[in-house]
Write a structure and sequence with these properties.
Order of helices and strands: HHHHEEEEEEHHHH
Structural class: mainly alpha
Bound molecules: zinc ion
Shape: elongated
Strand content: 5-15%
Helix content: 55-70%
Distance between the termini: 30 Å
Radius of gyration: 25 Å
């Protein structure tokens, strides 16, 4: 049910269509107007075509995994929980080693530490980073890896298509100068069309390239500092408050950067980090997030 609820967001739906359209448009321009005319008959045509399409396939695979994977939704209780004795209940949870669990009034359930409620998904998400319309899903503990891989391949595809368009444009200008002037008049309409495609693809690549680079950097910083953007904002607000004694201020244990990266990308080889392969979900502080605490009194 929750997965369908995510897909009802019109902004997310438009962004998904825009993403697929941009990918297929880039592939069309690169093959039709860059590789075939500029590298025709050369081994470079096949090579660039194969590499560019492999990058796009990996981009789409990571994107689909980010879209369709569970970001780490906190399961809803099967029966309604009575929160009237919330204080004594919380103390009991802490006694059982479940410190940091909180109650979500919207989901009406207990949620593990670092889980936050997403207004779009209408559910609590474990280690929620943000809700991303480009994947029409939340970025959370279980799909952050796929989201970062999607950013990585989008950045690579943007750089690659920029390089291919610029080199094909230079080749075109050179061959026009060297070629005979009679043909110039015949090719004029298609020449304008080709240049228009080059400009559109360059603008698309620069926009998406810069956009994903910034988000990619933010994602890596948030992993290495072990602080999601929501936690960063909350901790900043806590610091600004004078005489703050709020118990929910988050202080994470200092872990090595590589351990933090492995929590997101999996414990396998670093080469596996490049592929959208399933890795076992991490369990932090010995608490298994897949199960709610035992709240039988
Ligand atoms: Zn919630
Ligand atoms: Zn969400």
């Amino acid at each position: 049910m929750a997965a369908f609820r995510c897909r009802r967001d019109p902004c997310g739906f438009i962004c998904l269509i825009l993403t697929y359209f941009s990918v297929f448009y880039a592939d069309y321009v690169v093959i039709q107007y860059v590789l075939l005319p500029a590298y025709s008959g050369s081994v470079w045509c096949t090579l660039h075509g194969a590499v560019f399409n492999i990058i796009l396939l990996l981009l789409l695979a990571c994107h689909s995994k980010a879209v369709f994977s569970d970001p780490g939704m906190v399961p809803l209780p099967e029966t309604a929980i009575d929160f009237s004795d919330l204080r004594s209940q919380s103390n009991r949870l802490n006694d059982r080693g479940c410190e940091g669990w909180t109650v979500c009034s919207r989901c009406e359930t207990y949620r593990p530490p670092r889980a936050h409620h997403c207004r779009v998904c209408q559910r609590c998400i474990r280690r929620m980073d943000h809700h991303c319309p480009w994947i029409n899903n939340c970025v959370g503990e279980l799909n952050q890896k796929y989201f970062i891989q999607f950013l990585f391949y989008t950045g690579m595809a943007s750089l690659y298509s920029m390089a291919l368009v610029v080199s094909a444009w230079v080749w075109r200008i050179r061959s026009e100068r060297e070629g005979d002037e009679d043909k110039e008049g015949e090719e004029a309409p298609s020449k304008h069309l080709i240049v228009a495609h080059y400009i559109i693809l360059l603008v698309e690549s620069i926009l998406f390239g810069v956009f994903v680079l910034v988000i990619f950097y933010d994602q890596l910083v948030s992993i290495i500092t072990d602080e999601t953007p929501i936690e960063q904002m909350r901790n900043r607000l806590m610091k600004d408050k004078p005489n703050n004694t709020h118990p929910t201020h988050i202080t994470h244990t200092r872990k090595p950067k590589i351990a933090l990266l492995r929590e997101v990308f999996g414990r396998g080889s670093i080469i596996c980090w490049l592929f959208p392969l399933h890795s076992s979900p991490p369990s932090v502080g010995g608490i298994s997030y897949s199960a709610l605490p035992d709240y039988n009194v």
